[in-house]
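Exercise: predict the fold of this chain.
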Amino acid sequence: GNWLLKMAPLHWLLVLGLFLIASASDEPVTAEIKKLANEADGESMQERLLKGYRKQFSMKRQAQTTAAESIFQKPRFEQRFQLVKPLLDEIFKQLRKSQIALANTEWQELPTIPIDNEPILLALIQVWQNTAFFGDLVLRMPDQAHPLFDGHEVRTGLLRWALNDVCLPSPVFNSSSAQRQLELVLQETGLATAIDPEYANPFSELALLSQMQIKQQEARAQALELKRTIARQTIRVPQSPTDER
């Protein structure tokens, strides 16, 4: 369960995260997508393939978001950074490999799920899944993630390519929640076409500190009000006959 992940040691979470990054193409993805596609009837082959992959994508996303949340639950900044750094290093490595694999190909002209071109399909899957996982990490742990790509021209270029060229146009991300995550990641990374001046990440260290201070102030105010209420009630209690003697 999720509580086990929250209690997991750092090295175990790191192994899990690296597995989630690398496992996009460890399985016979083409065969699995075809198998899932056969479960949907009355649709075109591409519709069935897309629906089949979305099932896989959804399962992977659940594991990714759980892993990111478990890292976020680690109490110390340094603990979270020790996990986020190797995961982002590996994500950028996989994105670069996929970018090279897709270079000089007409992958944009192919169907969404190019089942007949497995190298391109596997490269796209790596981009889809690892960009989504990057989003989980950067939105949940922005202060740990930003030093790993801010001012880094190659990594920033990879993110711009993965987000704008590969993920945003893809029907794989056509759900409102998936689109919303991509939009938030573009704002967080500063790569959005139109930067929202009102955007603020509630999971930044500054925001979390501010939230904690507000809760502490509210708790102090509630405690003070309780004391005042008790004091007023004490004053209003009528004296007993014994007290009058």
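Check your answer against the key: The chain is about 70% helix and 0% strand.
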